[in-house]
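Researcher: Here's my situation. A collaborator sent me these components and asked whether they could plausibly form a single complex. I don't have experimental data yet, so a predicted model of the whole assembly would be a useful starting point for our discussion.
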Amino acid sequence: MASAAFAQDSGPLLDLLVKKGIVNDQEAETLRAELVKDFAANTSAGKLNLSSTLTELRLSGDLRARFESRTGELPSGDHQERDRFRYRFRTSLTGKVVNDWSFGVRLETANGSRSSNVTMGDDSAANTSPFHKASDGVYVGQIYLTYTPSPLFNITVGRMPNPLNTTLMVWDGDINPEGFAEQFKFRDGNNEFSATLGQFLYSAASTQNTFGAGANVKDMGLLAWQAGYKAYLEGTSKFFLVTPTLYTYVRSSQNAAAFRDGFSPTANQTAVNNLTVVEVPFEFDWLLGGVPARAYADVAINLDAKDRASKFGRSDLDGQNKAFTVGFQYGKAVNKGEWDARIFYQAVQAFALDPNLVDSDIFDSRTNMRGLVIGGDYALGGATMLTVTASQAKRINDTIIAPGAGDIGANNALDKYWLLQADIVVKF
Amino acid sequence: MKKSLIVLAAVLAAAGLVRAEKLVIKGSDTLGAKLVPQLAEEYKAKNPGVSFEIAAEGSTTGIAAIIDSTAQIGMSSRRAKPTEMSGASAKGVNLKPTIVAYDGIAVIINANRPIDKLTKRQVEQIFAGDITDWSAVGGTAGKISIYTRNTSSGTYQDFKDLAMNKRDYAGSSQKMAGNEQIASEVSKNPNGIGYVGLAYVATPGIKVVPIGGITPSKETVLAKQYPYARPTFYYTNGEPSGEAAKFIEFTLSDEGQAIVGKVGFVPIR
């Protein structure tokens, strides 16, 4: 059966018919009007009235259903489990307008910076009634403007997708940093050079230089300086990429207590004093027997860990300043029936990274943990993915806590940790 | 009581007759400023008792008037948009176009400006604001002043489609209510540039610029050689009836088309 013909593609045909004298102008006009009516009646595009300044508009998103099981064990052998059925919905509206500007807005179902999940049955303490909706909501996960005056450069402001090339070891994939980012990219033959600068508002004070004798609290910033080099070795399927990055914190000692925390990383160690982190992620991608393969690693060190350990009261642990992950992925699940598998080992010492940024799942948002993660994807369809992830982790140094604000419970004496996640994701 | 009812019925009948002979036509300034009033005068001369209400406030208002059933004929210098078609269908209105004349959108400049040709690319660049000085297109220096129709005008949209690759007008462009206002402003401003329908090119103080070597004329428009040529329309709700049908028939007749040519448009045959 022939596909429907609409006005969008019939104009040149009608003009040709007129030119050849097969129909006259009025007949062509009547036919054109009928086609436009069909287009208006039978397509959603015919009902849209978009601004003339728009040159592109895209609606996309994903919906994920998940079963998750987390288990923690204290040194005494005491266990705690947390099994949850969860869902997450995110939808993005992105677009381009005239004169090199673009924008994006993403709505999400939950307000967590590291998670947009909602737990079925609502396991929050405040709500016990069947199918309660208290944890469901609509939140702005991303909202940003980008100016791209040249293919070589762009600048973004707002709450944006993470502009840095990194791994779950340093940044949870759900975090969308707020502030400014500038990206430069230049390719010369098979060599591509890039730089990404980030000026993120980590935590803002409501007022600065408070009247009277109030605490002199200031905005705190996170600065990221990333350089990049990508060597294309064979088309776009075989390449090497390295992106060394420096993170520095600005006015961390003068920020609100949530991150200053007495300027000493006690308790759950969310304070961000004495963090000057160098991260070097790198990867090699190639075709292994015709199948996409990826070997990757990420190493990081906190150059200020000596003082961080000292302020924690354990100057003897100033060597707990490193983190690394090394992994391998075979395959790439995109089209129906395709699959991939991955495995990586990761270790994050207690004073190596900012515990507020690390992934919230594989080590339960904690540092001072090491362990193995395996997982895989199977494409049920072109837009539907089945994903399984499992991890097993153990505290690195048993003489100090495994800090961070995890889901398994507030007890930072956590010694061992297991995670199992099974997801079905529909993307559009 | 019976007598009162008879009088009331007579009054209502008379009112109905009056309404039946009044033709409401709304829409395009291009058609409604000169052509349709002249057609209406001629038609009235032949059909005493018929009155006209003509409002020329832009093609958008003409199509909206058909959708809202506030006019029997909607004048338009552009085709109805899909959203207008959709809106009409939702109200049970069947927008039917009838070509009544052809037109060429002439690019005009001040008569004293020493420019005698422009390319399509230059026209796009000027109206989009990429070129802001006459020296960039071979003229003597001077900051270009752009005059366009307002956004309810069919010509405003047609010119974007035909001449500007659907780009937006320069932010500095000045929006005018009608063709005559554009012609008037350009005639007074040595740095001015604008566009008008063929019926308005005789305004003193302006000159028409050939585009890619082609001057808008009856011949180049009919042959579809002139790049900014277009049909103009009457829109009705389905097949016209009554006085509207008769007026459209008159417009398309030899006599009506003679008026079309006399006013400056290009007759359909």
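Model: Some features of this prediction you could bring to your collaborator: Helices of chain A lie at 7-19, 25-42, 257-260, 305-312. Chain A has four helices and 18 strands.
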